[in-house]
Amino acid sequence: MMPDDIQRKLKNLGIMPAKIRGQHFLLDEIVVLEMVEAARVSKKDTVLEIGPGLGILTDILIEKAGKVVVVEIDHMLAQGLQKLASNKLKIIEDDILKVSLPSLIKEKKYKVVANIPYNITSLILQKLLEGDFVPEQIVLLVQEEVAKKIVNSDKKTSRLSLFVEYYGTPCIIRRVKKCAFWPEPKVESAVLQIIMHSKKVVNDREAFVPREYFFKLISAGFSSPRKKMINNLGHTLGMDRDVLFSVFDKIGISRDVRAEDVVFEKWLDLAQTLYQNK
């Protein structure tokens, strides 16, 4: 698809791309095909697409999947999707952050494939990963910098990367250039895939330490990213420094380390040990 095609379709719908909604329409059909391939979409799958826009991805999903549920907040774009009329397609005009996923998707298993608004990436991930109605797999087109942060490409962890790793295994499928969109975004993009952990893995972790405690600990550890993690934990959570020194030494974490240099497994060990010693 060419930029002229996008502009013509938008003009016919009476739409101008809205920056506040992060509307950058994907042009590159090769990227679309690679996203669908990465998710291994088949006729047995139900797929959720967030922010379908003009339907370049939706069209392929209808062809490959058994059922497609799309959530589009823009009224005119939602109306425009009616042209893709198919008994496989369910169009929901709503805000993805406000809708109840179980009310949209009746099947117990589903996948997510989408080019999402970059400005709400973290909120969308939180919506999809938390709770009991978690997809089997997620393939998203996101800002490249965010994708790299999630997969720890620079060997540094973050609140977001640790949150995602708790629920699944992320990887970058490919980089996507600015010219693959109209209008062009100011940032480069990437296709991010998250293969979800089984419920047993997540439940086993929570059996040792509640996830609320785990994420509270991470938040405290990153409260002042340039300071030593042990000082952040002591200051933010009021933990005794001698107790922290003892726990850090026991599980093999340097007393001088910053939060970004602690890998997921060590965070989990730290949370479990501190929780058990409360």
Automatic annotation (TrEMBL):
S-adenosyl-L-methionine binds at residues 24, 26, 51, 72, 95, 115. Pfam families: RrnaAD. Its EC number is 2.1.1.182. It catalyses: adenosine(1518)/adenosine(1519) in 16S rRNA + 4 S-adenosyl-L-methionine = N(6)-dimethyladenosine(1518)/N(6)-dimethyladenosine(1519) in 16S rRNA + 4 S-adenosyl-L-homocysteine + 4 H(+). GO terms for cellular component: cytosol. It is found in: Cytoplasm. Its main location: cytoplasm. This is Ribosomal RNA small subunit methyltransferase A. It comes from candidate division CPR1 bacterium GW2011_GWA2_42_17. The gene is rsmA.
